[in-house]
Amino acid sequence: MAQSKPKLHPKVDEVTQRIVKRSAQTRKAYLERVDAARNSDPGRARMGCANLAHAFAAMPLGDKLTLRGTAPNLGIVTAYNDMLSAHQPFGGYPDIIKDAARKAGGTAQVAGGTPAMCDGVTQGRPGMELSLFSRDVIALSTAVALTHDAFDAALLLGTCDKIVPGLVIGALSFGHLPVLFSGAGPMPSGIPNKEKAKVREQFALGQVSREKLLEAEAASYHAAGTCTFYGTANSNQMMMEVMGVHLPGNAFVNPDTPLREAMLRATAARAIDLGHSRELPFAHVMDERAFVNAIVGLMATGGSTNHSLHIPAMAAAAGIRIDWDDFHDLSAVTPLLTHIYPNGSADVNTFHAAGGMAFLIRELISAGLLHVEKLTNMGAGMEAYALEPWLDDGKLAWRAPPEKSLDESVLRPVSNPFEREGGLRLLTGSLGRAIIKISAVPDDRRRIEAPAAVFGSQEELQAAFKAGELDRDVVAVVRFQGPRANGMPELHRLTPPLSVLQNKGYRVALVTDGRMSGASGSVPAAIHLYPGAHEGGPISRIRDGDVIVVDAAKGVLEIKTDPSELGRRKPGKPTEMPEPGFGLELFAPFRASVSDPESGATIFPGWAPPTGN
């Protein structure tokens, strides 16, 4: 007798249904447009002969002959460059994909490339101020690549922070096509994360030299592949699995291995199959259930806070409206099943070896926390994603993951979670709405009440730290860091000094309208605050010494200043900065039109219902 499937958790069902209701008009408008673009013939069948000749002019003769017929043509969109370790492996992918496509009875072409910048390189540098906007540029360049309308399916190559969300947003404009994704996998493990973090703190205290710090960093980031900590890049890969966009088990297979090449070939062959059958259009795979699965996966793994921006932005491109209440409510019922750095000491390779995504998905399915019946690129149902890939006599196959976690310090079942709730919470109160990640914050540090120290930049805070002015209980307020102010850069440089203060025994928190991403650690940080200082929000009126309460347990963010007094104050001004350079001046139209953080901090408005003639 077949085993009955677990019933969907009532809260997951409730949140999904309210998203469906909230999105009814915009989703309908999006699907109507996508369905109108679907056709029983390939787009090139509607091309003029000159158009088609241009499209295949540079292809080998055999591919030209194939493309003249009805065989599927696969469009590759690649975020390759060889400066990003995570994207360097993509350099050789197109030839492998083309070979696999031919063997599957189709053809493949590189439709176009997208930029891919590394936040690890731009941290604390001017380029970080256009990092978030690079996501929307990637979406635009993906649309440019696919707009030739010469493809029956698409295979998108990307791994890191803004790249995957940008590829998703762009691909959703071509939601009539089947679209598959592939990353390149994490680099092999380097020095232990605790050792790296210790050296960073020692450098912040002036106890070790820059040479010693560089030696530690280079021993951590040392090869091709994704950085091995669980930041935005690896959270992206997790999400592509729980949304059913990858082939199962694609996320954390290391680069330049036989299994990674086998996965890539299988992904290309699957894309050709879907292009031939015209089944599983991307728009239908990426429904409300897909985004709920993504949020649940994020909570279960303590993933990157950046996805409280990216998920609403991606969803909006599919006509789906998601807000931070959805994150908060799903977090409340999703157990934390992983401890991966910065939430623990292990890296993603250890997580993968302990059972990885297949184990995690099986556990979430068993608890009724994932939508099992949703469409995926494997067909109907998430069960295929509860299997792990392996090479059986050199051939790709899938098998059940370990029955028990092979390392419960890293990965646990739902019956024995690290915490009963997920790692992200919504804060509300007199200062506005913000997100806080608590999966790495000790229980006794989840409520901080202390006087404010107000700064207009990371550099100001670091100067105060070095001068010893922050050796006390303090809530550091770093403002004018929102998307309309300066592009909402990540503020990673704040983590070492604030960690040092906390380790000295002071009660410390951060409040900012900027970002901290997946690398936010044990210091409680209320981030993405809006309305931000640039919009004249309450954060612009905070003064040194005002008492601030950051209470993750109760979901409260407030200032203990009389509201009438706060209202009489003039808003502060941003730190005087030099005229923009480094390309920042080109992004002035983005800063002028970007939406609020809860809407995704995006320049794209999402799908509005038709207003009539």
Element layout with pairings:
Blueprint: H1 10-22, H2 24-37, H3 49-56, H4 61-68, E1 73-78, H5 93-103, E2 107-113, H6 119-122, H7 131-146, E3 153-157, H8 163-172, E4 179-182, H9 193-204, H10 210-220, H11 232-242, H12 258-277, H13 282-285, H14 288-301, H15 307-317, H16 324-331, H17 348-354, H18 356-366, E5 375-376, E6 379-380, E7 388-392, E8 395-399, E9 424-429, E10 432-437, E11 447-455, H19 458-466, E12 474-478, H20 483-486, H21 495-503, E13 508-512, E14 525-530, E15 547-551, E16 556-559, H22 563-568, H23 588-593
Parallel strand pairs: 1-2, 1-3, 3-4, 11-12, 12-13, 13-14
Antiparallel strand pairs: 5-6, 7-8, 9-10, 10-14, 11-15, 15-16
Radius of gyration: 24 Å
The separation of the N and C termini measures 57 Å
Query: Could you tell me the mean pLDDT?
Result: 92
Helix content: 25-40%
Order of strands side by side in the largest beta sheet? Answer: 9-10-14-13-12-11-15-16
Number of domains: 3
What is the number of E strands?
16
Amount of beta strand: 5-15%
Segments where pLDDT lies below 50 for 5+ residues? none
- Major sheet attributes: 8 strands, mixed
What is the number of helices? 23
Summarize this entry quickly:
The protein is α/β, with parallel strands linked by helices. Helices cover about 35% and strands about 15% of the residues.
